[in-house]
Specification:
With 207 residues, the chain is of the alpha/beta class. The chain has one domain: 3-Layer(aba) Sandwich (Aminopeptidase). Helix content is 31%, strand content 21%. The strands form 2 sheets. It has a 7-stranded mixed beta sheet, sandwiched between helices. A two-stranded antiparallel sheet has the order 6-7. A hairpin with a 2-residue loop joins strand 2 and strand 3. The longest helix is centred in the C-terminal third of the chain and has 18 residues.
Amino acid sequence: MKILVTAFEPFGRENVNPALEILKLLPDQILGKPLIKVEIPTVRFKSVDVIIEMIRKHQPDVVLSLGQAGGRTDITFERVGINVDDYGIEDNEHNIPVDEKIIKDGPDAYLVNLPIKDMMNSVRDIGISASISNTAGTFVCNHVIYAIRHYCETECLNIQSGFIHVPFLPEQVINKPTMPSMPLDMMVKGINIALETIIKKGSDLAP
């Protein structure tokens, strides 16, 4: 098994993205399985183009994307991507689509096909807060979930894909006293366990 792990660059008014900081600290292998680690732009369509290029180059069995969700309290495993771009803020190339379809003739939604409940439970078992999320929003994170699943489905690729959102880092909330955060080492530990679970458990057909 080969796993492609992606993470977004910083966006909005943030100078750091915890997802990218996690990616930098992940090992090159987990349980003997290689990780391909790739930073992607926080830009609609371009983010997906980079991932598809890496899929074609490396032919991974799994694509796991990581992103920041400021305001969330725990590590959250996304269940679904929906066919809409409706950005409340600009992406990093100043795109701010309103009620636009990601794929013009695509279905309304795709469920991820990673074992997200097993992943969540494994993270909880080591004492880290985790949950299932039923909405990834309508920003670039959702765009990636939907578009990568669409690509895999339409190209008939036997690839599992999914998305994990992580909270702010403590240093990001110094001037946001009501905003939750999680230490980087804890998030890295949680993502490592989630990756181990993917390798051990395989596909969950009822996420």
